[in-house]
Design brief:
The protein has 109 residues and is an alpha+beta fold. The protein folds into two domains: 30 residues; 78 residues, no CATH class. The chain is 38% helix and 22% strand. A three-stranded antiparallel β-sheet has the order 1-2-3. Strand 2 and strand 3 form a beta hairpin. It starts with a strand and ends in a 15-residue tail after the last helix.
Length: 109
Amino acid sequence: MRLFEKTYDPLTGLTTTIGSQDGRMVVKTEGDIGPSLDYTAALRNDPAYSKAGIKKGLWHCIHIPPVAIAKMMTEDGFDVVTAHPKEIRKFLTKNRAKYAYLFVTEGKL
């Protein structure tokens, strides 16, 4: 691949590579989702976390890191950034098996 540009965004942790291969433009986005998965698993395994949030009227159900947003956009054509919260809920409920690692709770949304 002929490389045109490679950038790293410290805010999102994503590296974007732009280049060409076989006469086609290639845009590749990469990032480390490991720390986000560890964070989500820790919250999911702490029953007191969900209980405290529900008592305060806020329930942290899903944690969507930038790498997962990029995956949803490229693989499913779903834009989490511009979607209404009800659309996000519907999409993730429908695709729960694929995106189970994003759920902070085991409960029904």
